[in-house]
């Protein structure tokens, strides 16, 4: 069935499919690990059992999401050797160490303390357990740090030299590679997105249980905490996104041109196209709804500032405009909906109706999965906007793929689709099942400790002490 397909296209679809599945879980676990640290810290500080109940409630969900994130991430790394071996050969001296640093720092830190966090509440002291929770949360951030550094280098490559064999080699300083021009902006934008994604899920679960029982103290607390996060952090995210956009305009102008739908240059101020249908072949956006000169104001802070269009970019170097155009609008639209939810919650809080406005609760419930949609839309904007390059301006995607036949790539893609939907579909169903159950007093820890397999591990005492 794949005999007439394009192997490169199938390889790109396969990586896009697996990375989209994978990105959902780290985006949730990064924020949830920090939320768990906050809950346990509040419990230690106040002594209120409610915080411990919420900690144990979300700990079970975190364990499943974390496990699915690890498994889906391992699969992605194998594709570098199967579908993208030329890319791995070319950029391995730069990307390889960055990914190794993630394993040596974040992965070992998480693996070392995750078991204590999940099963050690009754086996170690409170302070030691809280330390383990903090270290797991820090580990998730460090993991994001290294992965985003590697990906950002592909967006804005600096600090390297090209060897005689065409490989990208480290230059004089690794700091220039790690802290490449787009990395600080992308790190802040992505980590805040993870926190907002988690807040929206927590808020949706709280809203769901408030709709069923508005006197549930646990639901009230989680909903209140989530709404504070939305109200305070959503404006920060919009500002961070604007700064990231300005950085992208400086280093990847073609991506911004595609995001804005600017096929033509605008010497006297560019309009902001709110909606339209990009036609890359005809070099125009049809049925536009636009605001004159607003794009120049946003990107250059000047209504009459000139903005270059895709007419200044060679056709072979243009990204797919329609995908980037719409994914960017989905991300931005959801961002403003998050801001609206936060402002609505502030109004409800000011009138002491936070737990009574059922329309607010329904809106929060509806917004529950929106964070995942936003982070995937943002990832699509970033990655598709970088095309037709894997290393921006230096290595083309067409020159990065392995010399595989289309049927081989198509067969593995089909297998991924079937297995992913089966395995991760079940995992997601189980997480939703846990969320459906309301939190209550005296929540228990995860009820299955790790299996003891070491021969020196003492087993339970037998009758007669033998």
Automatic annotation (TrEMBL):
Cellular compartments annotated: Cell inner membrane; Cell membrane
Keywords on record: Cell membrane, Electron transport, Heme, Iron, Membrane, Metal-binding, Transmembrane, Transmembrane helix, Transport
Similarity comment text for this entry: Belongs to the cytochrome ubiquinol oxidase subunit 1 family.
PANTHER family with a match to the protein in the record: CYTOCHROME BD MENAQUINOL OXIDASE SUBUNIT I-RELATED, CYTOCHROME D UBIQUINOL OXIDASE
Protein name (database record): Cytochrome ubiquinol oxidase subunit I
Native species: Sphingomonas colocasiae
Entry's transmembrane regions: 15-36, 57-78, 98-121, 128-148, 192-211, 223-240, 323-347, 359-380, 404-432
Signal peptide range in chain numbering: none
Segments of this protein annotated with the region Disordered: 442-466
Pfam families the record matches: Cyt_bd_oxida_I (PF01654)
Topology in the lipid bilayer: Multi-pass membrane protein
Organism lineage: Bacteria, Pseudomonadati, Pseudomonadota, Alphaproteobacteria, Sphingomonadales
């Amino acid at each position: 069935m794949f005999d007439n397909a394009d192997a490169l296209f199938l390889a790109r679809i396969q990586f896009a499919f697996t990375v989209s599945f994978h990105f959902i879980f780290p985006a949730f676990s990064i924020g949830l690990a920090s939320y768990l640290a906050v809950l346990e810290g509040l419990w230690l500080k106040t002594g209120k059992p409610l915080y411990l109940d919420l900690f144990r409630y979300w700990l079970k969900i975190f364990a499943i999401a974390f496990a699915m994130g690890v498994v889906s991430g391992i699969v992605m790394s194998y594709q570098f050797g199967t579908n993208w071996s030329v890319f791995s050969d070319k950029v391995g001296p730069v990307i390889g160490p960055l990914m190794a640093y993630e394993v040596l720092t974040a992965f070992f830190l998480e693996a070392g303390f995750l078991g204590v966090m999940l099963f050690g509440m009754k086996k170690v002291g409170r302070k030691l357990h809280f330390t383990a929770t903090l270290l797991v949360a820090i580990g998730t951030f460090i993991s994001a740090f290294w992965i985003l550094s590697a990906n950002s280098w592909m967006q804005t490559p600096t600090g390297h030299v090209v060897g005689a064999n065409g490989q990208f080699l480290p230059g004089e300083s690794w700091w220039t590679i790690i802290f490449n021009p787009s990395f600080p902006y992308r790190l802040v934008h992505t980590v805040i997105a993870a926190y907002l994604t988690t807040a929206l899920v927590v808020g949706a679960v709280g809203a769901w249980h408030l709709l069923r029982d508005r006197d549930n103290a646990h639901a009230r607390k989680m909903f209140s905490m989530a709404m504070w996060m939305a109200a305070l952090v959503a404006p920060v995210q919009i500002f961070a996104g604007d700064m990231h956009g300005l950085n992208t305009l400086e280093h990847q102008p073609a991506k911004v041109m595609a995001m804005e739908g600017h096929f033509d240059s605008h010497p006297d101020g560019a309009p902001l196209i709110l909606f339209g249908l990009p036609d890359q072949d005809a070099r125009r956006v049809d049925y536009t709804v636009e605001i004159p000169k607003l794009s120049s104001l946003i990107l250059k802070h000047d209504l009459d500032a000139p903005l270059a269009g895709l007419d200044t970019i060679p056709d072979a170097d243009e990204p797919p405009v329609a995908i980037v155009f719409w994914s960017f609008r989905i991300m931005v639209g959801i961002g403003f909906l998050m801001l609206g939810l936060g402002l609505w919650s502030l109004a409800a809080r000011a009138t002491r109706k936070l737990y009574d406005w059922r329309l607010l609760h329904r809106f929060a419930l509806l917004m529950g999965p929106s964070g995942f949609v936003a982070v995937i839309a943002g990832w699509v904007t970033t990655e598709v906007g970088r095309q037709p390059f894997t290393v921006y301006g230096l290595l083309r995607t067409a020159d990065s793929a392995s010399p595989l036949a289309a049927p081989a790539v198509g067969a593995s893609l089909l297998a991924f689709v079937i297995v992913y939907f089966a395995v991760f579909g079940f995992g997601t169903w189980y997480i939703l099942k846990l969320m459906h159950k309301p939190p209550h007093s005296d929540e228990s820890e995860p009820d299955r400790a790790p299996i003891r397999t070491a021969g020196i591990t003492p087993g339970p005492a037998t009758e007669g002490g033998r």
